[in-house]
Write a structure and sequence with these properties.
about 220 residues, mainly alpha, two-stranded antiparallel sheet, about 70% helix, elongated
Length: about 220
């Protein structure tokens, strides 16, 4: 899938397909690229997540952008969302370490266990937002929870983007585990550092996706 995505993204960014152009049919792309339809559809879905194309029922897939610019998640740009998350979630983790209850910890541990065994991306993304809400709840300040609730849709969209294009799920699970362990230890310093590390990795993955440039296709590979 990654090879197909790289090929199609490169074709769009080179201008082989201009904004407004319709991509060839799935059957034609499968034939040209010599891949199965499930693999192609996964790549096409990733193009949509990147904001390069849109799928119109009964009409096909159309190019809507010539390059991957800053992603927008719902009503918020990636940079705006990350800036707010740093100012809110990092100190919240410290408060949570100092104020969490046994019920808060039980909830987060149970949620993390489920996430580590979940194979469905949609279900994992839903639990990812619940995890961050759970940390906010553990701070015992309802205003923090309300703020996270306000950006919950954007968080879910960002999580889906990172998992679809950056393969972040396993790494996120490990980072979440470090946050929970710091909360269990009651260490404000470790909790703040764990959340800061988590958001650093989010930013790094976002940047790599946006800045990634497509390598030229292997010699002899047909152009889309």
């Amino acid at each position: 899938m990654e090879a197909v995505l790289t090929h199609l993204r490169g074709a769009i960014e080179r201008g082989d397909y201009a904004i407004g152009d319709k991509l060839p049919s799935e059957a034609e792309l499968c034939r040209r690229l010599e891949v199965s339809r499930p693999v192609l559809r996964e790549a096409l879905r990733a193009l949509q997540v990147m904001g390069l194309t849109v799928s119109r029922t009964g009409k096909g897939t159309f190019v809507v952008a010539g390059s991957v610019e800053e992603p927008t998640f719902g009503d918020y740009s990636a940079s705006d969302l990350l800036e707010v998350r740093r100012h809110i979630e990092i100190p919240v983790a410290g408060y949570a370490a100092a104020r969490r209850t046994s019920e808060n910890l039980d909830h987060l541990v149970h949620l993390l266990d489920r996430m580590e065994h979940e194979t469905d991306t949609t279900a994992w993304v839903a639990m990812d937002t619940l995890f961050h809400l759970g940390v906010a709840e553990a701070s015992q300040n309802p205003v923090f929870r309300r703020v996270i609730e306000e950006i919950r849709d954007a968080l879910a969209r960002q999580s889906a983007f990172l998992n679809e294009l950056g393969g972040r799920r396993e790494q996120s699970n490990r980072e979440h585990r470090e946050i929970v362990e710091a909360l269990m230890d009651g260490s404000e310093t470790d909790a703040v550092e764990a959340m800061a590390h988590h958001l650093d990795r989010v930013e790094t993955t976002l940047t790599s996706i946006v800045r990634e440039r497509t390598a030229p296709p292997p010699e002899g590979e047909p152009q889309a």
